[in-house]
């Protein structure tokens, strides 16, 4: 819809207002469309200014599940660092800690002492490091308290996290519990992700479990964006000798066999462990470990078509 706001009959006066349906378009797509419209309307403008307004620009929020087949592979650490790295390239990202029984994100993103407020029955996410909005059961229950919940209760708790007021977040990273249990099934049924990332260490046992997690996403027709190899190699800080406590290259080989993208590897490092305990993910800095997380985040952003141009 166009409106001519000419102030007089002479050329070069007034302006032309153009209202465009921009629903579903990314910022980059809107910018490209606006440039195309300006070029195509040059003759019609005849010196007048053109104001372009996009309507229906609702947030097109996507959900990416970060999963693993077994515990202890560093999936939560990977999630927190990917959130920080994506934030650094301009993605409006939020984090849902869906590990109902063992939440880690409040420590990893330094928000342990914060409690979410509610407007009616809708939770308002707390803000972690790097201004990342986040929610976890760790924010809702007393610190150190064990939850003895059956599947339906866990499902209702998970729904509260997903149905919170996520504002302008365009991407939610969901830190799943290990395995293929009630929480995963509830999420797939009610809040189907737009994609999944599988985290594993290189050893055969972890890879076998990771394959089961991947099979669950396949059955639910959730595209797997790729595999991440964590704890890949260790360099002794004293002698400089490199070793592979968990093996080497297993996840990359598995990705090749499954015809899935290999997103990258993260080293086994004191820096990653210490920064995680401190609630200051290494992806906030420019260390080699932080660069490894940022490279993986860039692969994910590119596959989703989001982030800085």
Comma- or semicolon-separated keywords:
10 helices; globular; three-stranded mixed sheet; alpha/beta; 309 residues; 35% helix; Rossmann fold; 15 strands
Instruction: Give the structural class.
Output: alpha/beta
Major sheet description: 8 strands, mixed
Average of per-residue pLDDT values: 85
Portion of residues in beta strands equals 15-25%
Give the name of the CATH architecture of the largest domain.
Answer: 3-Layer(aba) Sandwich
Which stretches are poorly predicted, pLDDT < 50 over at least 5 residues? 6-12
CATH structural fold name of the largest domain:
Rossmann fold
**CATH homologous superfamily of the largest domain - what is it?**
P-loop containing nucleotide triphosphate hydrolases
Number of strands: 15
Helix content: 25-40%
CATH class of the largest domain: Alpha Beta
Distance between the termini: 29 Å
């Amino acid at each position: 819809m166009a409106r001519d706001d000419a102030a007089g009959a002479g050329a070069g006066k007034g302006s032309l207002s153009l209202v465009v349906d921009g629903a579903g378009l990314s910022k980059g797509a809107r910018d490209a469309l606006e440039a195309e419209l300006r070029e195509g309307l040059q003759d019609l403008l005849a010196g007048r200014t053109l104001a372009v307004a996009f309507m229906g620009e609702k947030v097109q929020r996507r959900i990416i599940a970060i999963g693993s087949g077994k515990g202890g592979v560093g999936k939560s650490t990977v999630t927190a660092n990917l959130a920080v790295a994506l934030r650094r390239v301009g993605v409006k990202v939020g984090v849902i800690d869906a590990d109902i029984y063992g939440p880690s994100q409040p420590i990893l993103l330094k928000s342990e002492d914060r409690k979410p407020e509610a407007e009616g029955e809708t939770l308002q996410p707390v803000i972690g490091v790097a201004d990342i909005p986040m929610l976890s059961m760790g924010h809702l229950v007393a610190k150190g308290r064990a939850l003895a919940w059956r599947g339906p209760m866990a499902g209702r708790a998970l729904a509260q996290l997903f149905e919170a007021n996520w504002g302008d977040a365009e991407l939610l990273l969901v830190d799943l519990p290990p395995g293929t249990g009630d929480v995963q099934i509830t999420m797939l049924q009610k809040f189907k992700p737009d994609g999944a990332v599988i985290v594993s260490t290189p050893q055969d046992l972890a890879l076998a479990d990771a394959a089961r997690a991947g099979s669950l996403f396949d059955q639910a027709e959730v595209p797997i964006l790729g595999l991440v190899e964590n704890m890949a190699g260790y360099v002794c800080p004293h002698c400089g000798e490199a070793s592979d406590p968990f093996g080497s290259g297993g996840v990359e080989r598995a990705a090749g066999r499954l015809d899935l993208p290999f997103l990258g590897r993260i080293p086994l490092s004191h820096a990653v462990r210490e920064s995680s305990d401190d609630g200051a993910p290494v992806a906030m800095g420019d260390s080699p470990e932080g660069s490894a997380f940022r490279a993986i985040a860039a692969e994910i952003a590119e596959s989703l078509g989001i982030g800085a141009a």
